[in-house]
Design brief:
The chain is mainly α and 273 residues long. The protein has 11 helices and 3 strands; from the N terminus they run ααααααααβββααα. Strand 1 and strand 2 form a beta hairpin. Helix 7 runs antiparallel to helix 9. It starts with a helix and ends with a helix.
């Protein structure tokens, strides 16, 4: 079977350019890959062009706009999701400008499509009193409670994203002075975050209890479930909301009705102002 220029450049973009030249994280690459799976599906079922016959010349600005409309009408995607899909496509065509400029005019037409304005919702954050109340909810009498206090306090004190916490291993923590933790964020960029003695004390107890101070455990997930698998986004969200509900029962004024893991990150940022 004859290969198409679209398949050649898309494969190169996802497997070489994004991970090696751009340094994109596996999560970013997966999100972009999902966009192209949807786009190829749209081209086959709506535009009647099968994947093996999809050439770059078949992709126009009008085609991309129709794809975005299809996401909204057929897949019920939000404006935010549509913007993310468009950003992935535009990144690919920006790359193509330098790899295959034969159709540069159409690439730039696609790149000129504007992102749709979305409503910004107010970010709920916790006051210092609210954080204190939240962190008082996990019981230190149970193994899960001790894990949860280590998890939530570390999320707040480091201002980390959920995925950054999920990806942590014991090897990232420095338990001698100066105490710190190495966090890998978007684009595989790392940063060193100082840790307070109280946080280190909590982590030491947690690490010791779970055998995570042993040399062979240094690359294990720092936080895991009962099956020793690293926690997921829904899992961490469930933990946060469970204790938020308990804290709200004690003082609903200190705990916003709508709280997310991202709220902890913004709470930390607000407290540093």
């Amino acid at each position: 079977m004859k290969t198409t220029d679209f398949s050649k450049y898309l494969t190169d973009y996802l497997t070489r350019y994004m991970p090696h030249e751009r340094g994109s994280s596996p999560n970013t690459i997966m999100a972009y890959r999902d966009t192209f799976v949807l786009f190829i599906t749209f081209m086959e079922h709506v535009q009647n062009i099968k994947a093996e016959k999809l050439y770059l010349k078949s992709i126009t600005k009008e085609c991309v706009v129709a794809f975005l409309d299809w996401l909204q009408t057929e897949r019920k995607c939000s404006d935010t999701t549509k913007n993310l899909r468009l950003a992935a496509l535009q990144s690919f065509f920006r790359y193509l400008q330098y790899q295959n400029p034969d159709n540069l005019y159409e690439y730039q037409n696609i790149m000129s499509i504007k992102l749709k304005k979305t409503k910004r919702t107010a970010m709920n954050y916790l006051t210092i009193e609210g954080i204190t109340l939240l962190l008082e909810q996990p019981t230190v009498k149970s193994e899960k409670g001790r894990r949860d206090i280590a998890l939530l306090s570390l999320m707040y004190n480091t201002g980390s994203r959920v995925q950054e916490i999920i990806d942590l291993t014991p090897s990232a923590i420095r338990l001698d002075k100066p105490y710190s933790i190495q966090i890998t964020g978007k684009g595989n960029k790392t940063r060193i975050v100082p840790l307070m003695e109280n946080q280190v004390r909590i982590l030491k107890c947690y690490l010791d209890e779970h055998g995570l101070l042993e040399a062979q455990a240094q690359l294990f997930p720092l936080f895991s479930n009962s099956r020793k698998e690293k926690l997921t986004r829904p899992g961490i969200t469930h933990i946060l909301l469970k204790y938020a509900d308990k804290a709200r029962e004690k003082n609903h004024q200190l705990i916003p009705d709508k709280l997310s893991c991202h709220s902890l990150r913004h709470s930390k940022a607000m407290h540093l102002l």
